[in-house]
Amino acid sequence: MGNQLQTANSTMQKRLALGLSAAILLSGMGMAQQRGGTLTVGLSYDIDTLNVYSTGFLGDVQATVAEGLVAPNEKAEYVPVLATRVPTIQNGGIKVAADNKSMVVTYQLRPGVKWSDGKPFTSADVKFTWETVKDPKFIAESKDGTEDISSISTPNDLTVVVNYKRVAPDFKSTLFTFGILPKHTLEGKDLNTDNYNQMPLGTGPFKVTQYVKGQFVVLDRNPFYWRKDKAGVQLPYLDKMIFKIIPDSNTLVTQLKSGEIQMATSVPYSQIPQLSAQAGLNVIKNPVLSWQHLDFNLKGPAALRDINVRKAVAYGLDRATISKALGGYPIPIDTVVVPVFSYSSKAVPKYAYDPAKAKQLLEAAGYKAGGDGIRAKNGQRLSFNIMAQAGRSTDEDAQQVMIAQMKAIGIELKPDNKAGVALRDARYKGGYDLYYGGWITSADPSYGVFYSTKGVNNGQGYSNPKIDALLATADSSLDPAVRNKALRDFQTLLMQDLPSIPVTSNPSMIVVTDKLGGFVSNPTNMTNFVNTSGWYMKK
């Protein structure tokens, strides 16, 4: 999901940092990077596992340990990490078959890289990662990208040749970006139960030294880390990072103010004014590639399969009021593709706030208001549970606004909020009536994971063969014109079916100590911790 810092000596000097321009201000310009120090980060969710391929949440901690072959930077552009370059057609790293039905991607690996136990990283690890993640016995959060590969060859320790069954324009955003698994420690083991899930081994700047579930993760500097700064100093600069699990946002803010934690990357909007005035802290607005959505469980109550009910909900939502309730930070949207992407469509069916029209739709569909104002048809009341992430005050605040807005048109919504593994399981298995939450994508997203029939994040049970075909086209062409048309047509059809209502695009608010230098925010689902090696504490 997608870091900057600005020195401030008084409240009047505080600035709200935005995007890359803040990176320059916040990097400690003119100050020498200094080794040492500990950074304590507050996480607003409970970690389910430290295995980047198993977790149902953003891999904040995992990104400091596991590295991929490439990764998106602060501009959402892919840059090489364990590979020496990003494969393209122009540099010969991608070769498309004459029939345009398959392709070969070749990675040249960085020499001299070691795992945090000192063993060498090689092409065998890359091939092992594919074989392990695609194994049906391994329970992964997503196996996205594994099924597209027919075979991998490793002609030498530093070359990986990946043979794809199809032309896969999204190859950079799937399998080998999130992290490589160590063959020498995992071969022959059950990755579902192995200790790797609590103490992962990586090539990243830090290594896990202690993990107490529900409380904290301690990471120490990886003594074998491959990256050096321009002066030849081995990175990372920091000695240690500590991630504290703090699901309650009030506690998170209290510890930011007290200095118990020095950083949080998803601070509630309601807390930003007071934190902006706090000496020693800087606030950063990070425009992430995300959107908030209200999903209908199409496997749940029969009324939610009635398009008139779903349209009534859409017309009954006042996105502007929701944004205002959250400090005005969220941007109301009409499509699931955020405006930063060129293929975000303005031609989709729109559902502007119109409570009168919402009532008319429900009335015409036979839903009559009862004595309590809640509508019913054939004895079935329009009364549903609505799930959001427990303790995430931004989402819970928006949820309360929605509950009031739905009551005004005769629909009752009752909070049924969950956290941690319970939220993850309900989200993936459809354990809700309505779900309000957010998705954050890669720099080159595949919307099939959310809206195709077999999409890993499609817990709501939505299925439309035409959508499947459009998303398959978008995911199998390197031609921007073909992809853009398919994605625009997909958006139109999706908003006609309305299995999910896009609500707002929400920037994340990062609060960080003014003693941290080298921090640059990341707008993608690789999180703000995708490159922590250059961070340092100012003395």
From TrEMBL:
UniProt GO MF annotations: peptide transmembrane transporter activity
InterPro entries: Peptide/Ni-bd (IPR030678), SBP_5 (IPR039424), SBP_5_dom (IPR000914)
Residue span(s) of domain Solute-binding protein family: 77-458
One of the GO BP terms on file: peptide transport
Pfam family of the protein (one): SBP_bac_5
Record carries keyword Mitochondrion: no
Keyword Amino-acid biosynthesis tagged: no
Signal peptide: 1-32
Coiled coil: none
GO cellular component terms, A-Z: ATP-binding cassette (ABC) transporter complex; periplasmic space
UniProt keywords, alphabetically: Signal, Transport
Entry's family note: Belongs to the bacterial solute-binding protein 5 family.
Stated name of the protein: Oligopeptide ABC transporter, periplasmic oligopeptide-binding protein OppA
UniProt source species: Deinococcus marmoris
